[in-house]
Amino acid sequence: MLDLDRTASQVSEAPLHHTTRWSIDAAVSLIQQPFNDLLFQAQAAHRAHFNPNEIQLSTLLNIKSGGCPEDCGYCPQSARYDTGVTATPLMSVDAVLTSALQAKAAGATRFCMGAAWRAPKDREVAQVAELVAAVKGIGMETCVTLGMLKPSQAESLKSAGLDYYNHNLDTSPEHYGDVISTRTYRDRLDTLDAVRDAGINVCCGGIVGLGESVRDRAGLLCQLANLATPPESVPINQLVRVEGTPLANEAAVDCFDVIRTIAAARIMMPSSFVRLSAGRKELGEAGQALAFFAGANSIFYGEQLLTTPNPQQNEDQDLLARLGIKTMVGQA
Predict the structure, then answer these.
(1) Quick one: pLDDT at residue 262?
(2) Active-site residue identified among 110, 183, 188, 203
(3) Active site residue: 75, 204, 222, 255, which one?
């Protein structure tokens, strides 16, 4: 059991850059301790590094959907599964810029763009670089997720003004093969290395509800927290079960398991943004409020994620107002 004598004031004296190397056993103990104790520690860590009553708003746009050759068992964009997702070409600069301006007007400070590729070609990266430059030009933070990247491609995106690159590890190395076979864990880590070496901030997290164990969740968080520099942004997703995917009939995950994962992420990576991502709608208002208390301080804002529904903007505005949580102004 972890030492609860480490009070909020003591946590606030911790250094900004987390240097602890976590073992899986320690992470399991962290996640499994009494719920109130876990949330107390998470809230203390959160207050040491962030305003607990502020949240960052990001908007996610699917700039090229469907047709991906990967076999990720949760993903409706895989060409291997019949999910009703239609493959589309890459969006134009004007269309993306229109969406980005709408997102900015609605209060988002970061604009994230996703394209369903296994690994983009150089010409495709050049096209995305144009989109990045356009969005950067209106004063928003930029983030893209395009699949695996070569170092030269990461450098091209950095030159265009890219702030964040998203590339999730999804789950632990041990459980990974039960979810995906077409891309190795090492492939994902290599992409993270290329992004970091190019000077781009890393956005990397995982999914709760893939049939994994508590030890797998701990293993994922250890992989993230033990990177030479932990990700600046850590999205925690709850599996959205989509008909036609191999995980469509996976058992629903307990809300408290999601909250425990978020709280552990906050404690293990105290200076990172922890984003409450896919599956937020399924948590309901009370679950989302608990997630914010546990240290989540970033959400995707807008009615649609890549292919799955998200809470309506007016619902989010109402909930945040009732909780007394304000949105971050300017770049976060």
Answers:
(1) 97
(2) 203
(3) 75
For 146, 187, 265, 277, the CA distances from 283, given in Å and listed in that order, are: 27, 32, 18, 11
Residue in 204, 291, 281, 274 with CA at minimum distance from that of residue 241 = 281
List, for residues 260-313, the tens digit of each pLDDT value.
999 999 999 999 999 998 888 888 899 999 999 999 999 887 554 444 445 566
pTM, full prediction: 0.87
CA angle (15, 18, 21) in 5-degree steps: 135
The span from the first CA to the last CA of the chain, in angstroms, equals 35
Q: Is 255 a catalytic residue?
A: no
Q: Which of 68, 204, 222, 255 is catalytic?
A: 68
Catalytic residue among 110, 188, 217, 275: 275
**Residue 71, class by beta-carbon neighbours within 10 Å (0-12 exposed, 13-18 middle, 19+ buried)?**
middle
Count of alpha carbons within 13 angstroms of residue 167, beta-carbon side? 27
Residue 173's region, left for phi above 0, alpha for psi from -120 to 50, else beta, is alpha
Q: Are strands 201-203 and 206-208 parallel, antiparallel or unpaired?
A: unpaired
Q: Is 143 a catalytic residue?
A: yes
Let me know the angle formed at the C-alpha of 231 by 183 and 246, rounded to the nearest 5 degrees: 35
Sign of CA dihedral 161, 313, 66, 90: negative
pLDDT grade, residue 11 (50/70/90)? very low
Catalytic residue, chosen from 47, 80, 112, 204, is 112
In the annotation, is 204 catalytic? Answer: no
